[in-house]
Design brief:
The structure holds two protein chains of two kinds. By secondary structure, chain A is α+β, with helices and mostly antiparallel strands. Chain A contains ten helices and 24 strands. In chain A, the strands form five sheets. In chain A, strands 3, 4, 6, 7, 8, 9, 11, 12 and 13 form a nine-stranded mixed β-sheet that branches. Chain A has a five-stranded mixed β-sheet with strand order 16-18-23-20-21, with no helix packed on it. Chain B has a domain of 128 residues: Immunoglobulin-like (Sandwich). Chain B is 9% helix and 48% strand. Chain B is built from one helix and twelve strands, in the order H-E-E-E-E-E-E-E-E-E-E-E-E. In chain B, a hairpin with a 6-residue loop joins strand 2 and strand 3. The longest helix of chain B has 16 residues. The termini of chain B are far apart. The chains are: A alpha+beta, B mainly beta. The interface between A and B is large, with 105 and 77 residues. Strand 8 of chain A pairs parallel with strand 11 of chain B.
Chain lengths: 542, 184
């Protein structure tokens, strides 16, 4: 009986296997390459190559639209779907999505159309009775290749990180691209989205791999390191806020490290521009320059020893520092926090690291606050961090718009202080050179590092607030919301101050302020005037 | 009358106290669209920001488009090349190639355009900007939307949208497919 049952099962299994087939193949996409001419770069539609779509999700879809088998392509873009029913209509569907359990989850979606997931499909064709190969290609001319080109750039960046740390798990990331992303710009949103410009008649970035990797670098900083950058527009010759300078220099340098190509480019229709991250002319070098920082980071990484660059650390020491000491630094993330800890972690290379930074006109970096800076063109720039003592007034801290507004050097002034007693502390920022400014501030605890307060009252010439602070180190970031040419402040934290005492108002009191509109002020005056007159008339029976 | 006067005074006081302070803000008409790049994270390029006001109009009507460029550069030259979607007609005489001398005193560089279209739709004015500080130049591109009609749609509809069996929205492209039977 047992033997008959086994034989029957064997017959059934053999029959089933005769009706199962495999479909294999490759998923490809077309990539348009850049054409460089001097400082200009455009997309060269005469230089299109077929590339493989790596690590993307592939499914066999039946005539009901249901996925009956799923896999992912390998690093050669190849896939294999096994045990598909024979003589059944299926189509092969490739998603612009890389998905690996405990690995990554990256997809390209159309943010202008209900966040639709981009897919590439073949025709609904019978599987037949034999194994077959179906190779799919996304064409550049039909605009079906950009999602796969974008993913390829991201995969290159992820692989670089995985080489440094094979245990990394990348948080989900959505790449938002559309031909109708015409005014969106290309940027990382600080969370889990990268927006990508797709204007086919103007600026589109889907094939600009350095730009894709630059933006991915911001995502990496946010998820694995720490980015204190304040964002905003920036250019390579700018004197930038130190936090922005590092963030942008890092993104540019990463694009060169990942591709092992320091030639950064941005194609813009029939125009476009490029820069060589390593050899570009040193315009206004310094610790405030994203161009200096990208050169420093790339020189630390690359194997090309040139001039003052005699160091070839590779990527791992940079990755290790960003994900440890830089992430926990008690200063704002900047070149100072990075180089200080890099030297501490690689002390045998301190001299060589100093040589690289000195080539950018940056005096030896010895601490995370950039103390002892020697080179500046403007007295308001220094010190980078002012040190404040509780119950004493820090005087003559000046913001200025010498280099521009919003996010440039000296738009923000950085103060550090230590609290030794857990209690309530009033913070006062008072302008001393007039009433032109609207000072505001953000307050950070440094361990763990996070913003704990924001004070943005629309009050001219002063900003005050009271906070209960436990013992520890803090940073105060002061800025002028009115972008005065130059605004100087006295700053105090605590009870004592050398400045004249202002009328006492608690941090939560409303107080009575006159409205600034003259008509309404007049109405108020009339109201106050009429009331006693009416009372007197009534009492005197006039 | 006395009661009226007695009530009037406190009312005036309350009105004065509850008035909103700060600068007067204009309430924009609902047909005016505004946008700005100021404060946004941006990819590397020329250090220029753009702010715009774009008035929605009907087909055949002239729309006022107010564009303001700002830069953090203190000196140098800013050049702007303006192109319009084919469906747009320029109604005023703004040059398509502009050059501004950048000075520390001038904070904003305005470009006021008037355009029209005979057909409803969402169109764009594109600006390619360049800063030349005598030490190499960078570019930045901007696009200003022009809304014509009650429900203007973009020219490009994008790819075919369908729903997966799972309910997920899919944007479908047809592949160039090569099929081969693998003989045993």
């Amino acid at each position: 009986m047992h033997h008959k049952l086994s034989a029957l099962l064997l017959i059934i299994a053999s029959t089933l296997s005769l009706h199962a087939v495999d479909i294999s193949g490759t998923i490809n996409y077309e990539r348009i390459h850049p054409l460089h001419s001097g400082s200009s770069t455009i997309l060269d539609t005469n230089n299109i190559t077929t590339e493989t779509a790596k690590q993307i999700v592939v499914e066999a879809i039946n005539s009901s639209g249901t996925a009956i088998s799923s896999t992912t392509t390998n690093d050669n873009g190849q896939y294999l779907l096994t045990n598909l029913p024979s003589d059944t209509n299926v189509k092969i569907r490739a998603y612009a999505k890389m998905l690996k359990s405990s690995g990554w989850d990256v997809k390209v979606i159309d943010n202008t159309n209900n966040n639709a997931q981009y897919i590439l499909e073949g025709d609904l064709i019978t599987t037949g009775s034999s194994d077959s190969s179906r190779t799919l290609k996304a064409s550049a001319s039909t605009k079906s290749s950009p999602p796969f080109a974008i993913l390829d750039s991201v995969y290159l960046a992820m692989k670089k990180v995985l080489l440094a740390d094979s245990s990394v798990i990348f948080p989900p990331l959505k790449m938002n691209w559309s031909v109708n992303n015409i005014e969106s710009g290309t940027y990382y949103d600080g969370n889990d989205n990268i927006m990508i410009q797709g204007d086919q008649q103007g600026d589109s970035d889907e094939y600009d791999d350095h730009i894709m990797i630059h933006e991915w670098g911001h995502y990496f900083e946010a998820k694995f390191s720490r980015a204190d950058s304040i964002g905003g527009s920036h250019g390579s010759g700018d004197h930038l806020d130190i936090r922005l300078a590092f963030g942008e220099g890092w993104g540019n340098a990463l694009s060169a490290m990942v591709t092992d190509d320091p030639f950064y480019f941005d194609t813009i229709g029939t125009s476009g521009w490029n820069m060589n991250i390593e050899t570009a002319q040193h315009n206004t070098p310094g610790w405030f320059s994203e161009a200096s920082i990208q050169r420093i980071l790339y020189d630390l990484y690359d194997s090309n020893d040139d001039g003052s660059d005699t160091l070839s650390l590779g990527f791992k020491p940079i990755y290790d520092l960003l994900t440890s000491k830089q992430k926990k630094t008690e200063a704002f993330t900047s070149l100072f926090s990075f180089i200080t800890e890099l030297k501490n972690e690689n002390s045998s290379h301190s001299g060589q690291i100093d040589g690289i930074t000195e080539n950018e006109n940056i005096a030896t970096i010895n601490d995370i606050y950039g103390s002892n800076r020697l080179n500046t063109v403007n007295i308001e720039n220094l010190p980078i961090y002012s040190k404040l003592t509780i119950n004493k007034t820090l005087t003559n801290i000046c913001t200025s718009t010498t280099y521009g507004v919003v996010n440039k050097l000296s738009n923000h002034k950085l103060i550090r202080f230590t609290v030794n007693e857990n209690k309530s502390y009033p913070i006062k920022v008072i302008q001393t050179n007039g009433r032109t400014s609207d000072p505001d501030f953000t307050l950070f605890q440094t361990s763990p590092f996070k913003q704990i307060a924001l004070s943005e009252k629309p009050t001219l010439a002063k900003e005050e607030a009271t906070y209960t602070l436990p013992k520890g180190n803090y940073l105060l970031n002061i800025y002028d919301a009115r972008d005065s040419t130059k605004a100087c402040f006295n700053i105090s934290i605590g009870e004592q101050s050398t400045i004249p005492t202002e009328p006492t108002t608690s941090s939560n009191s409303v107080g009575i302020e006159l409205p600034k509109n003259p008509l309404l002020t007049l109405l108020l005056f009339l109201g106050i005037s009429i009331l006693p007159v009416l009372f007197i008339r009534k009492e005197l029976k006039i | 009358m006395k009661k009226t006067k007695l009530l009037l005074a406190p009312l005036l006081i309350v009105m004065g106290l509850n008035a909103k302070p700060t600068e007067t803000t204009e309430v924009e008409a609902s047909n005016v669209k505004t946008g700005t790049t100021i404060g946004h994270y941006q990819k590397p390029g020329a250090p220029i920001d753009m702010t715009y006001k774009s008035v929605t109009v009907n087909a055949g009507e002239t729309s006022d488009i107010n564009i303001t460029l700002t830069t953090t550069v203190q000196t140098g030259t800013m050049s702007v090349t303006i192109t319009l979607d084919d469906e747009l007609n320029q109604e005023n005489s703004v040059e398509q190639n502009l050059t501004f001398n950048i000075t520390p005193e001038q904070k904003a560089y305005p470009i006021d355009m008037q355009v029209s279209s005979v057909k409803d739709g969402l169109y764009y004015i594109r600006l390619l900007t360049k800063i030349d500080k005598g030490q190499g130049s960078k570019l930045r591109a901007f696009a200003v939307p022009v809304y014509v009609g009650a429900n203007p749609q973009p020219k490009s509809k994008g790819l075919n949208i369908m729903k997966a069996a799972s309910g997920e929205n899919l944007s479908v492209s047809k592949a160039v497919e090569t099929i081969e039977v693998i003989k045993d």
